[in-house]
Amino acid sequence: MSTSDVGREGVRGARPDREAMIGQGGHPPDGRGGRRRGRRGEKAMVPDAEFGSYYGKPILNPPVWKAADIAGYFFLGGLAGAGSVLAAGSQLTGRPAAARALKISSLAAISGSTAALIHDLGRPGRFYNMLRVMKPTSPMSMGSWLLAAYGPAAGAAAVLDVTGLFPRLGRAATAGAAVLGPGVAAYTAVLAADTAVPAWHEGYRELPFVFVGSAAVAASGMALAAAPPRETAPMRTAALCGAALELGATKLMERRLGLVAENYREGTGGRLMRAARALTVAGAAGGALLGGQSRTAAVLGGAALLAGSACTRFGVFHAGIRSAEDPKYTVVPQRERIRAREAEPA
Amino acid sequence: MGFFTDTSVCIGCKACEVACKEWNAVPEDGLEFTGMSYDNTQGLGADTWRHVAFIEQDRPVSTRPDDGTVPSADGNGGMRWLMASDVCKHCTHAACLDVCPTGSLFRTEFGTVVVQEDICNGCGYCIPACPYGVIDQRKGDGRAWKCTLCYDRLGVGMEPACAKACPTDSIQYGPLDELRERAAMRVDQLHDMGVEDARLYGHDPEDGVGGDGAFFLLLDEPEVYGLPPDPVVTTRDLPSMWRHAGAAAAALAGGLAAVFAAHGLRDHGLRGGTR
Q1: Residues 91..130 of B with a Cβ closer than 8 Å to A: which?
Q2: Which residues cross the membrane (chain A) (predicted)?
Q3: Would you place residue A345 in the very low, low, confident or very high pLDDT band (cuts 50, 70, 90)?
Q4: Which of A147, A268, A303, B63 falls between 20 and 30 A from B204, CA-CA?
Q5: Which residue in chain A is spatially nearest to B53 when comparing CA positions?
Q6: Residues 6+ apart with CB under 8 A from A116
Q7: Helix, strand, or coil (residue B232)
Q8: What ipTM describes this predicted complex?
Q9: For testing the chain A interface, which of B241, B265, B268, B274 should be mutated: the one with the most A CBs within 10 Å?
Q10: Is the CB of B142 inside 8 Å of chain A's CB atoms?
Q11: Is residue A235 part of a domain?
């Protein structure tokens, strides 16, 4: 059945598909443009944001980073960085088994994250170009230098602890890694935020706190899973504090983001953020309450915390990609910015 | 030096796209038929350094009611085509250049922004940093590519290939001050002709990117052309970002130290802690 109507004045109703696209927002080509409000399809109380776009094409070029590499890098960097702080704390307070386990996990994590970073480069052979310059305006440059200092320190801390050689040097390396570790955990938030990707850039105030909270969750999860329960009491507290910081900062960020926060609630990013919340809460509660008595509970709680932290990083990553692919998240907030500026008295 | 692209005289011939590809030996990037419009290039990318957009609108060409424009048969007031040749903006404050960790992106003596292809290591950071969606990664190569404003031609006193090829002078190349003056005159002229929607985009050195080295005369809102309405160089907020990250790192170190302090030495600790 044809939808066009041929009359004296010509053809009416032809090409309905394209007419819907002309000069309007249109929908992104993957067909997920029909925006759902809420989860049960309740009626929208606020009209959908209207905006123009070029056939629904993205305005930004979305990141070409592969999720497994870069979100994995964020997760492993956090695990390593916060792990080094916990390792130093454990060593200072007479918890040698926990300290050793965390030093080993930090070395493994930072090696894995460096491998992921190099794997994601289109030209791995040119990795050394990262160390050609030192640029404070480039979080990736600063991160490369930070890794260049942190990696050997974390490596020496682990190797010297396991071998028992040069104990004084080992203590210095442990301290050095603990000083640099928080930077490794936090700078990746700046790495993501210093882009035009709306879900990352607009959240730059809260994102570092989400990341360090998530890092504390991952590292304390690792300690719960790998160290004997008699040594992990501080890590159980750290898991609770980290989870509270992460979830609180995420909530705050979503509130500030407004329309852009949709990317943290819908799509792949939304699903991962929900999974992260559930795993982190379950892991923190289970690990903190039962991890002191039962090794099984500690291992399960620790695994849930690690998985929750990974889900947070992948969730943030996918939310960013989604926000870059839909021109709505670029245009509408910028329009609002212009309107707010014009409303201001000169 | 820079570009002024006057889209009001663009005829959509795509000669600029072709000239750019030919001069710069840019590889073919998919012979795709999109069906969305006559524009099968779709947007700027690693292998499209000039892109001509075709925008079909349900609006008459002129907004003046008495200019004799005949409304279309269905009484909608007719339709118009907007054509616009887009290119790298060569921002005064260029996010791609700021975030490049290798120093591969640099500012030339002409004030333009160019990638040194032998230094680029394919990290891809410049790509999401660009608020205009210009620079992109070439598949199978891994490096980032974009318009060089024909750096090699400028050096020997030639104008860029796209400007040279443009048959209507929609693309004009020259010193930015001169181009801005010319652009302001053209906007006034169009306003006098009743084209009230004519406006400049990217010409203002006070805007979020410090003004563009390639600016445009548009006949509708920028987003209709696939351009961001209020782009801002991402590094403008970077000092604040570093401060927030520093606070977060301090919170992590301090918080964990406090946790250990609260727990104290382990009950059966090495030094005989007896708490």
Answers
A1: 95, 98-104, 119-125, 127-130
A2: 70-89, 142-160, 172-192, 207-227
A3: confident
A4: B63
A5: A54
A6: A68, A69, A70, A72, A73, A76
A7: coil
A8: 0.91
A9: B241
A10: yes
A11: yes
- Residue B216 to residue B166: CA distance in whole angstroms: 15
Among the ranges given (A51-55, A110-114, A278-282, B259-263), the one the predictor scored with the smallest mean pLDDT: A51-55
Domain assignment of residue A310, yes or no: yes
CA of A114 vs chain B CAs: smallest distance (Å)? 13
> Quick check: is A313 in a domain?
yes
Using the structure block, give the residue that is written with the tokens 């998240």: A329
> A191 or A39: whose pLDDT is higher?
A191
Q: Is A118 on the interface with B (CB under 8 A)?
A: no
CATH of the domain at A271: 1.20.1630.10
Q: In sequence order, what DSSP letters do the residues of A123-175 get, joined into one string?
A: -GGGGGGGGS---TT-HHHHHHHHHHHHHHHHHHHHHHHHH---HHHHHHHHH
Instruction: Return the residue of B nearest to A10 by Cα.
Output: B73
Is there a domain that residue A74 lies in? yes
Hey, which residues does B87 pair with through a beta bridge?
B50
Q: What is the pTM of this model?
A: 0.89
Residues of A in contact with B230 (CB under 8 A): 334-335, 337-338
C-beta atoms surrounding B18 within 10 Å: 14
- Asked if the Cβ–Cβ distance from A331 to B223 is below 8 Å, we say yes
Cβ-defined contact of A54 to B252 (cutoff 8 Å): no
Measured in whole angstroms, how far is the alpha carbon of residue B78 from the centre of its chain?
Answer: 31
Q: Which residues of B touch A321 (CB under 8 A)?
A: none
Size of interface A-B (CB pairs under 8 A): 285
Residue A68 is part of which domain span? 62-325
Token pair recorded at residue B259: 């946790």
- Residue at token pair 């620790």: A302
d(CA A290, CA A224): 11
Overall domain count for chain A: 1
Distance between A41 CA and the closest CA of chain B, angstroms: 29
> Above 60 in pLDDT, residue B148?
yes
